Amino acid sequence: MASTAAVPLLKDELDIVIPTIRNLEFLEMWRPFFEQYHLIIVQDGDPSKTIKVPEGFDYELYNRNDINRILGPKASCISFKDSACRCFGYMVAKDPSGKDINALEQHIKNLLSPSSPFFFNTLYDPYREGADFVRGYPFSLREGVPTAVSHGLWLNIPDYDAPTQLVKPRERNTRYVDAVMTIPKGTLFPMCGMNLAFNREIIGPAMYFGLMGDGQPIGRYDDMWAGWCTKVICDHLGLGVKTGLPYIWHSKASNPFVNLKKEYKGIYWQEELIPFFQSATLSKDCTTVQKCYIELSKQVKAKLGKLDDYFNKLADAMVTWIEAWDELNPSAETNGSAAK
Amino acid sequence: MSQENIKDSEVDIVIGALQSDLSSFLNEWRPIISRFHLIIVQDPDLKEELNIPEGFDLNVYTKSDIDQIVGSSGSTFFSGYSCRYFGYLLSRKKYIISIDDDCFPTKDSMGNLIDAVAQHITNLSTPATPFFFNTLYDPYCEGADFVRGYPFSLRSGVTSAMSCGLWLNLADYDAPTQALKSQLRNSRYVDAVMTVPARALMPVSGINIAFNREAVGPTLFPALKLAGEGKLRWETMEDIWSGMCAKVVCDHLGLGVKSGLPYVWRKERGSAVDSLRKEWEGVKLMEEVVPFFQSVRLPQTATTAEDCVVEIAKTVKEQLGRVDPVFARAAEAMVEWVKLWKKVESGSFPGI
């Protein structure tokens, strides 16, 4: 496969969203892969700071002032001082071996090929070159469903929670698992936002990263929250979620003590959250992502409000998010079936 | 569940002999399997005497043994690839590893010889995690763990009841696929073991499999016999059927099923195009089989594998029996199998 195609795949249909509080020198390492695409940079933290972006990239940058200006009172749903602010970028977006990994190309391949959530294929992604469906896989299920999410992984610093980081500070992920697979329907997973791609047209409104960071009782659960909501909605609408390739190299571990402070409520709240999401069902009238999401927000309020008042606020923020999404994206009806 | 410690003496390696000359097979596997007890079951339709090299601790069973235990009518269930199930029945060990006689040890992507038996044993002795998907796959293996967001209450896992390995070279494709893509060979070594999530069904291939006999032995029986079942994997469905039963039972009993490593090298055999004629029956039946198993719900009162199989058999008879008589026969066979299993377990066949 060519690493520099003449016209990059999905050149005008793909945005790369990067939340940041630092200068973006890391983009130099991604230049061969990213230069042809449009970037959306969401600057968290102090808006008066200037973020340095290397020359030659095509980007828009939004800081907190921009978010407040664009969303007005609805800006309250966008987290401050937490990478969860990245989801603002989603809202404004308009449409192993020694070889360098082209993560972008793999994500695109994942999204453009179907998923197979109804029956597990033991040879993993059957649409990949060199693989297929195994004996016993029903032919009626071989067309698959549209892929909404491509969840990539990380070499070097693994995405562990704070307790695990504290116990195993030296552990590095050195295992390159050469597979992409569909996460079966009805199965939840922890979605990491570090290396994530999704089809905005068919699942965008579900990618809300919640209320985290400054002024909130919890952090580092933004992507988890988005992932659980997204998976429940994908299962309901018959969309697929893939995990596995591509890998990226995660070079900087965050401070485990800081992480522990942010996460600790999440660690015991997730014991309630997982059963909640596992048993969440959406009614047949929920035919669009927005409708699914609003219904989910009602269930969050009804069932999790008693766990902590935070969930009442989060449920309200979920509604605000959908309102903001629809305002900024008026014509698109995200009904989950628009994808190729 | 904490780590099990599986001793060699608790393992039987069961080989179904569909070819008479087992010398190259057993000699190539010798470094890996010689310290284990082997059960070799000869396909009752195979007329030639088996050629087995010296130096193994083994029991060999032939048509006459099968006839003695199950009668000559019952022995049709153990023909072809299904002969291995007779070995499962008679084994006195807790764990069974079974590999097709056309599969051989192979190397991983770094060039190291894979000890498939050791890997299966590792898979069965470490917990499974069916209730929540770990994105770094097996959290119990060296260099890995549970990722952020994985609930702590689910981190002790459940007992692993089955370990489903994979195949390099000739993968386990059905005849239409292999016939269409005649050059397709599996050369991708995926360095992972994972738990197949609860309620997710999969095609369990019998080519390279290991299981906890005590936990799920009764669920693995070739009850679904195709009319045109043959001596090539493309012409069978027995493992797919029994594997689905096993997965449903594992989900109900809170046991885990793993898939992935180890790989074996599967040699070329037969012609997919020739098998196409026979294969259609199995392919058609899968369209009924999969939705059926997806909808099966077992009662709380079914607390053992035997109970579960009997319940499934009832439902097969009621729901699938009218679709095709092959299912009605399968339901009866499952009930007979459980009876036979219990008989053998109770010691009714001394000297075997």
UniProtKB/TrEMBL annotation, chain A:
Keywords assigned: Cell wall biogenesis/degradation, Glycoprotein, Golgi apparatus
Main location: Golgi
The protein's enzyme class: isomerase
Family matches, as InterPro entries: RGP (IPR004901), RGP_fam (IPR037595)
Enzyme Commission no: 5.4.99.30
Places the protein is found: Golgi apparatus
Function: Probable UDP-L-arabinose mutase involved in the biosynthesis of cell wall non-cellulosic polysaccharides.
UniProt name for this protein: UDP-arabinopyranose mutase
Organism per entry: Xanthoceras sorbifolium
TrEMBL record, chain B:
Keyword Ligase assigned: no
Cell compartments where the protein resides: Golgi apparatus
UniProt key word Glycoprotein: yes
Keyword annotations of the record: Cell wall biogenesis/degradation, Glycoprotein, Golgi apparatus
Class in the EC hierarchy, top level: isomerase
Catalytic activity, EC: 5.4.99.30
UniProt superkingdom: Eukaryota
Reaction equation(s) it catalyzes: UDP-beta-L-arabinofuranose = UDP-beta-L-arabinopyranose
Protein function: Probable UDP-L-arabinose mutase involved in the biosynthesis of cell wall non-cellulosic polysaccharides.
Family listed: Belongs to the RGP family.
PANTHER family on file: UDP-ARABINOPYRANOSE MUTASE 5-RELATED (PTHR31682:SF4), UDP-ARABINOSE MUTASE (PTHR31682)
Protein known as: UDP-arabinopyranose mutase
